[in-house]
UniProtKB/TrEMBL annotation:
Subcellular location: Cell membrane
Membrane-spanning residues: 20-43, 94-118, 139-159, 165-194
Membrane-topology descriptor: Multi-pass membrane protein
Protein name, per record: Mechanosensitive ion channel
Taxonomy of the source species: Bacteria, Bacteria division CPR3
Family of this protein: Belongs to the MscS (TC 1.A.23) family.
Amino acid sequence: MAFNLICFVFPTKSPLISFLISLCIWFAVAIAYYFMVAVFIRVLCARTSTKIDDLLLGIMRTPILIVIASYGLVESLAALPVAPSAYKFFLRLFYTLLTFILAYIGWKIIKLIVVSFGEKWAQKTESKVDDILIPLVDFLGPLLTVIVAILVFCSIWGLNITSVLVGAGIIGLVLGLSMQDALTNIFCGVAMLVDPAFKTGDLIILPDGKICVVERIGLRSTQLYFLNEHSLIYTPNSYLAGVMIINITKPTVDLKCNLEITVPYSQDLTKVESILKEIVCAHPCVLGDLETKIEKLAKNIEGMKPFSNGLEIEKMESAKTKLDLERKVFQNLQRLLEMLKRLRRELALKEQDGLSREEVGEIKSRQVTPIEDEVKAVTSAVLEWSHYKDPWISEEEAQQEEERWQAQNEKLRLLWSKLLKRISRPVLGFDVILDEEVRIFADWIAKEYKPFIPPWKEPDVSFKEFGQSGIALMLEFYVDDIRLEHFQRQSRVIKEIAQQIQTRFANEGIELSVPQMKLLFDRHS
């Protein structure tokens, strides 16, 4: 129909000239559409308060341009003396291209609009339904989009899929009935991968009290390493999906420990509390304010020299050096987060009407370049800190720690590289969410890359109760990384702190009531 109209407006007897005229007209339509979207529609979208229309514009602009150009090419072929079978072949090619372009648009809409905005909405509501539906849509939506696209592709090219679907349904029913348990484990395994309660390397507590390391998560079973017996446990996924699992390494790898200490009523509680905090804060494997910790550790090392052997002092001095390096890491991270905060604030102000080339150049020179240098400083500081060996871990563990932080550095560089590309060459429609992408990047640094130590994780002494033999106090502290020393770091730290308390109390003339100490295992963090 479109070709007949063109022939009516531009009559000619030459098929080649008709083809070229039709092709030029369609390409002109495509170019006009492109500039209309780039100028007029973009301005209209920039004036709205929502970002959904900007994202839709960014998603659909180029695919629709391709559809217009390809449709014009196929329509123009009608002017040439092409055999009907050949023209039908090109028409099928166009429908195939249209199918996969629509699938691409559907994929992008699900990922960037439905899931992204759905997650933000789910965070604002108390209902758990949307918390479950959004991950399902994120997982099943793109998969169903691909399946539908493949079925439409088969239909376009005349492939008979009815018998195949019927046969697959019958076979699936038979297999489902005969392999119900196996399929249950597989579906549970998929669910565990989609919404994981733990990942490989995590330390978990099973319902029977076994403390295990997750070695591998398969579709049918999960492989666990049982620490106490140095053995492997192969557990069906359906079992793990149906019981309560305690993940000790989440949300962070540090572990809270409670040490109950009972002292007679005659003791000075202020003095007792001061001594307990001093002992725990000086331990290099306990979390706390690094400035205070380094200062107390240095004082503790000086006090150890007349009484301790050279190996113990050497370990403590090495630990102090590693804490100094870690302090440098946190200082660099703090500067980086402050820079990202300023960048996000400026982007939020300027992206409302779309970023011009001049604004992008100004932001790059004033904000982005210093951040690039600070990212390099952070990765360098982390590399130096991770390379310096913890004095209590083995060479194998030291190598694993260094590799773990090299992977973190690579992820940091990759995420920053992607963000830098989006800022340097903002895509039409997506330039309105650059501030949100900066926020996501900063949140990942603060929560996933190397989390800062919050004040509430610093050592503390609290009153528990008045007992028969004295006042019960609770000493609370966090061991820095329970994965180290073959997951025995907590035991060593507890033992050393208990020994130091007994020694220090004896020197200060402070008595311990019976029961003297009680360790309470806890993981509230």
